[in-house]
Write a structure and sequence with these properties.
- This protein is an all-alpha fold.
- The protein has one domain.
- It contains three helices and no strands.
- Helix 1 packs across helix 2.
- The radius of gyration is 12 Å and the shape is globular.
Amino acid sequence: MLRDSQQAKYYFSKLTRKYNKGKALRIFTHKLGRAIYFLLKNKEAFDIDKFFAVA
């Protein structure tokens, strides 16, 4: 996801500026894991705009 998506690259760069690279990667993968869990639980399709929406 970080290789292909411009939104993911931007979000990851924001995290990297605030935290170091390792912690930023952990935060991003944790967010992605939670999203996948709820997608499978609710039987929904992945929506990248909803994933990066400010809640």
